[in-house]
Amino acid sequence: MASLPGALGGTDLVAWRLDLTAHAASWDSGIGAERYGGRWNVKGQRAVYCSVDPATAILEVAVHKGFRVLDITAHVLTSLQVSDPALVHLVTPGGVPNPAWLRPGTPSFGQQQFGSALIAEHGIVLFPSAVSSFSWNLVFDPDVARGRYSLGAQERFAMDTRLHPPPASA
User: Fold this and answer.
1) Within 10 A of 35 (CB to CB), how many other CB atoms are there?
2) What pLDDT, in 10s, does the model give residues 70-79?
3) Three-state SS across the chain?
4) Which residue from 41, 169, 50, 62 is spatially nearest to 117, judged by alpha carbons?
5) pLDDT at position 133, please?
6) FRET partner for 90 with CA separation of 20 to 30 A, picked from 6, 35, 81, 112?
7) For the whole prediction, is pTM greater than 0.85?
8) Rounded CA gap, 7 and 134, in Å?
């Protein structure tokens, strides 16, 4: 019998991400975050952004792309397994210097520097999600965290079409 996911009382730490199908093979490269910077990393630092549940991973992508893109462009949902959850650094909401960092909006350079330092030091970090207040994002540097995570599975993403319904008739 398979073990229960962490959300249901299991001890495994599984994380999820949603990528364009064209980027499925390079899911853990961190190149996008390196090129543009992210909520928790400065431009120039590789970082792979995941969530600890698939719904939050989907919302994290939808907030940037919209449900229309997820409906009409092929994506892949990837799961990964963290080998030792005890080595993951946890940032609690009270552990960030500025509570505005946990709200939707453009990240500040201070926020990016804060996250970058933690990712460089610990390799894998859990941050509270700004998209969903009671959800978590797992962010890792693929070089620093090498050997501490492994690919779980990848499957074609099928978005519920009710999230992009036809326009209402006038």
Assistant:
1) 10
2) 999 999 999 9
3) CCCCEHHHCCCEEEEEEEEEHHHHHHCCCCHHHHHHCCCCCCCCCCCEEEECCHHHHHHHHHHHHCHHHHHHCCEEEEEEEECCHHHCEECCHHHCCCHHHHCCCCCCHHHHHHHHHHHHHHCEEEEECCCCCCCEEEEECCCCCCCCEEEEEEEECCCCHHHCCCCCCC
4) 41
5) 87
6) 35
7) yes
8) 12
Q: What is the pLDDT of residues 42-90, one digit of tens each?
A: 999 999 999 999 999 999 999 999 999 999 999 999 999 999 999 999 9
Distance CA 54, CA 63 (A): 14
What's CA 48's distance to the chain center, in Å? 7
Q: Which two tokens stand for residue 30?
A: 């961190």
Q: What pLDDT, on the 0 to 100 scale, is given for residue 2?
A: 46
Region 121-136: mean pLDDT is 95
| Spatial contact of 81 and 150, defined as CB atoms under 8 Å apart | yes
d(CA 152, CA 3) in angstroms, rounded, equals 14
What is the residue whose two structure tokens read 């006038």? Answer: 170
